[in-house]
Amino acid sequence: MSSLPFPFPVVGWDNGEVVLIDQTVLPDRLAWRRCSDVPALCRAIVELAVRGAPAIGVAAAHGLALSWHLAAQRGMDTTAMLEYLENDRRLLAATRPTAVNLFWALDRVGSLARRLVAQGGGPEQIGTAILMEARKVLEEDIAMCRALGRAGAELLPDVATVLTHCNAGGLATGGYGTAVGVVYGAKEAGKTIRVFADETRPLLQGARLTAWELADQGIDVTVICDSAAATVLRQGRIDAVITGADRIAANGDAANKIGTYPLAVLAARHAVPFYVAAPGSTFDPDTPTGEKIIIEERDPAEVHSWGQTRVTPETAAAWNPAFDVTPAELITAFITEHGVLKPPFSESLGPVLAR
Ligand code: MRU
Q1: Exactly one of 216, 239, 246, 253 is catalytic; which is it?
Q2: Which end of the chain has fewer surrounding CB within 10 Å, N or C?
Q3: Residue 339, SS3 per DSSP
Q4: Pick from 65, 173, 70, 144: which is nearest to 112 by CA?
Q5: Nearest CA, atom 15, ligand 1
Q6: pLDDT of 88-101, one tens digit each?
Q7: Ligand 1 centroid to residue 85 C-alpha, Å
Q8: Which domains does the chain have, with CATH numbers?
Q9: pLDDT (0 to 100) of residue 11
């Protein structure tokens, strides 16, 4: 039986605080993290309590609502409140560099606040508008993911096995999911879908989160070590590889969790379609190619250890890039709320690049 409402309540607002499902403790515990100021929300983003490109965007939008709410409690005038908000916007923007949804959401909500202040709005009226805009970012994300889920479902046979990487599910978004949203869409369309989930070293988003949410939704899921992906593909057990993305450049190069690029190479080798499922907020018209995408490098300690146990010798170094870039030529199609976008991407990406 499902333990949460669906779409999952990944990010919310309660009594002047941003409330998140704490993804660092899943699947052991279902716990909530309450952020009462923006630095606390920034820590939640950096520690991956809230993670996944669209979910980070939704959380950041709510972070600006929180910032305005706190500024209002200090009795500032709206010009000073805007400075306070701008400072918090900078803090949120500095949390993680790769997912463009973060910057997209901050720009969207930040520019609304600036516009309303310029128009002479009062603190309370602007606060309500900012919170409503954050709520819209969340609701639109769910709607986009539902739409892309329906579009992607049509690509799958009635009985299909999908391989995915990391967690591009409800937990990574406003609650419905992108790559895993296609699985939910196919289920809603009456198809029988089985999922192989890469465990996704070093932080195990596949093993911990994708497996948890698919099981929660009653979908057959098998976790494999990342290194087993080649074998399931060679055995002909996979109908489609579907991943999410953190930023898609204008030419279609797509950044996603480290280990996605090798999956795309393997899919091409075994003639299995490789799809990237993402809402419009993940496409970045200002980044021409994947080479320009900034790849977050995380603490080597995440590679040195397995859980709390160090597994590498003290003398060994570790390198921990959080994302890689899959070249557009390896992507069979993008699954978006505008439908399935196939090559040539210079033509088909038009609707998602026009913001
Ligand atoms: O480091 P994470 O867990 O935030 O990485 C998440 C991913 O790479 C997801 O695949 C991506 O954000 C798409 S989420 C719909």
Answers
A1: 246
A2: N
A3: strand
A4: 65
A5: 168
A6: 999 999 999 999 99
A7: 26
A8: 11-145 (1.20.120.420), 154-353 (3.40.50.10470)
A9: 98
